[in-house]
Amino acid sequence: MVQKLPWWNGAVIYQLIVRSYADGNGDGIGDLQGLASRLPYLRWLGVEAIWLTPIYPSPLQDGGYDITDFKAIHPDLGDLSAFHRVLTAAHGQGMKVVMDLVMNHTSTLHPWFQRARWAPQGSPERDIYVWSDDPHRYADAPVLFRHFESSNWEWDEVAGQYYLHRFLRHQPDLNYDNPLVQEAMLDVVDFWIERGVDGFRLDAVPFLYEAEGTRCEGLPETHAFLKRLRDRVDSHGRDVLLLGEAIQPLDEIAPYLMTDELHGAFNFALTAHLFAAIASGAVEGLRNCLSEAQEAVHGCRWALPLRNHDELWLGDGHLVPEDVIQTIRAGLHQGQGHWLNWGINRRLAPLLNGDSGSNRVLHALLYSLPGMPCLYYGDELGMGDWPGLRDRDPNRTPMAWTPARNGGFSTAPDPLLVLPPITSPGYDYRVVNVEVQKQLPASLLNWHRRMLTCRRLLPALRHGDFELLHCTHPSVISYVRCDGGMTVLVAANLSAAGASLRLDLSRWRGERTREVLWGCEYPPASDSWFVYLPAHGFSWWLIGEVEDVEGVEDVRDAEDVRQPS
Question: Which of 11, 28, 42, 362 could hold 417 in an S-S bridge, CB 3.0 to 4.6 Å?
Fold first, then answer.
């Protein structure tokens, strides 16, 4: 009997910020009504799950990651009924919905914190958060937002104590040593699962517990609580994804992916190595990272982002070696003033200086590696950013739908927009938008749709085994994905110069070899199989006779995009 795989195995996840995606009521702020109207586009594109950044009530001092109520919807975005309509419509379109869940902290305006600061020291209410009379406790824990904060502690006049905040000072850390906190957060998870949510992206998951003499990351107590969380999720009797955000080296993330903890975790180390490879044209570090990732956690449990709503996190040498960080800093287009905290605050296209070849080869790798590829909204268009906006807002500007005013995002007057649309040369929303790119067969948007369609038709790319192939060319990485009788060969050239290479395909000697995207025949597999890849070129090949994949090159439009009136 064939074992049924969970829905997230190999799924393509599309991350979007609701308030920047589509405005349904004309007030200048994206909302759930607007998102519902754009679900047909996401189905047309071919994504399988939608990841919503926080939609809870919040003062929005940190993009919604400072929450005041875990069981409600921010009134700017709608209400629980509007969320139910989005959830039902997404399921009707065959897509899952993943919510961001911030487990580590709340806003200082959360009622829990307001009660805690007035409660007596040592009381259960006060101990909902982490307090101290000494601001030098946990001195080995790094300050994450070093450009904004000089300490992990903040004095509270009302409480007469310092409170811990691993993030910004208006985001106090919850105290998971308090059983009340544990039960409250498990209750939040129950609340959303009962409403039909298909998964959670667990924000800042390593920081739940603290201990002296450590970085206060990934402590045994944290893993024990995650086991409780997994048990609670499993008790609902359906597949609900727990996807952890842990910006740590692979060997430190692997324990989260034990069978009784999280289902998946982001592989930020791989992200850094992908950018280092495209910056330097050398793939040795990338090959080593891929090998280490599969050795640490075999299979398709890694979530694979290129960019997201945050900076491109590089860290202080803890995530990846210093030479990788310096390669990225020297080789990518950062622009002026875009180094923020521990990374580079740019969207993907500007980071690559608008080079479509680099953009496509990175996504070709992303869509063919084992795991869950994560596509950030607008990257399917090559959207730009808006340098000079506060904090990480340059990466969070409105989605470009049409050449109309405000890019079709909103009918509101410009001053009311949540953020300004992109108008910089090369990225102007009047050119870089969904409507225009849909009409251009060779556009980046249509390329993404084609790639996702091919991936959907090839089970080997979704959940097949992964094996790196030996390749002597320093700029080319090659591997195979195998699932049952299907084998897909992948080769990608990460340099700005063409590459000729020989691959040993002796185990498939004599087998038919066809390029996937266009169906072109190649010479049969052999022990000296030669191929040429242009600058930043790549190919996927089917090896052998495989039924039901003929015609992949003729992808027909399944549905028109619904345009706003």
Answer: 28
Beta strands in 103-203 (DSSP E): 131-132, 153-156, 161-164, 199-203
Shared domain for 144 and 227, answered yes or no, is no
Radius of gyration of the chain (CA): 24
The answer to whether residues 186 and 278 belong to one domain is: yes
Q: In this structure, how many other beta carbons lie within 10 angstroms of the beta carbon of residue 52? A: 22
Note if 203 is an active site residue: yes
What is the tens place of the pLDDT at every residue in 492-530?
A: 999 999 999 999 999 999 999 999 988 899 999 999 999
C-alpha 110/C-alpha 421 separation (Å) is 31
Q: Are residues 448 and 508 in the same domain?
A: no
Strand order through the sheet with 153-156: 131-132, 161-164, 153-156
Tokens (6 digits) for 153 = 């502690």
- pLDDT by residue (tens digit) across 548-563? 554 444 433 433 433 3
Looking at the fold, whether 141 and 256 belong to one and the same domain comes out as no
What angle is formed at CA 493 by the lines to CA 488 and CA 494, rounded to 5 degrees?
Answer: 125
SS3 assignment, position 432 = coil
Which helix (H) or strand (E) is 156 found in, with range? Answer: strand 153-156
191 and 265 assigned to the same domain: yes
Do 47 and 128 lie in one domain? The reply is no
Distance CA(45)–CA(28), nearest Å, equals 25
Q: Per-residue confidence at 225, pLDDT binned at 50, 70, 90?
A: very high
142 and 25 in a common domain: no
Q: Tens digit of pLDDT for each residue in 417-442?
A: 999 999 999 999 999 999 999 999 99
Burial class, 449, CB count within 10 angstroms (exposed 0-12 / middle 13-18 / buried 19+): buried
Residue 553: per-residue pLDDT? 45
Closest CA to 205 of 248, 146, 171: 248
86-123: burial string, b at 16+ Cβ within 10 Å, e else: bbebbeeeebbbbbbbbbbbbbbbbebbeebbeeeeee
Q: For residue 258, what are the contacts with CB-CB under 8 A and spacing of at least 6?
A: 223
Question: Do the domain assignments include residue 7?
Answer: no
Give every strand in the sheet of 538-543, ordered side by side.
465-468, 476-483, 486-493, 538-543, 513-515, 521-522
Residue 286, in any domain of the structure:
yes
Position 54 in a domain: yes
Which entry of 203, 261, 311, 380 is annotated as an active-site residue? 203
Residue 557 included in any domain:
no
Per-residue pLDDT, averaged over 117-137, amounts to 96
Q: What pTM does this model have?
A: 0.94
Give the span between the Cα atoms of 500 and 502, in whole angstroms: 7
The total number of structural domains that make up the chain: 3
Active site residue 245: yes
Enumerate the H helices of 46-178 as residue ranges.
Answer: 80-92, 111-118
For residue 469, the domain's CATH number is 2.60.40.1180
- The one catalytic residue in 210, 245, 379, 391 is 245
CA distance 288 to 2: 33
- Mean pLDDT over residues 155-168, rounded? 97
Give the C-alpha separation, 137 to 141, whole Å.
9
What are the two backbone dihedrals, phi and then psi, of residue 222, each rounded to the nearest 5 degrees? -65, -45
Q: Residue 401 is part of which domain span?
A: 13-103+179-455
Kindly report the backbone phi and psi dihedral angles of residue 476, in degrees, each rounded to the nearest multiple of 5, phi listed first: -115, 135
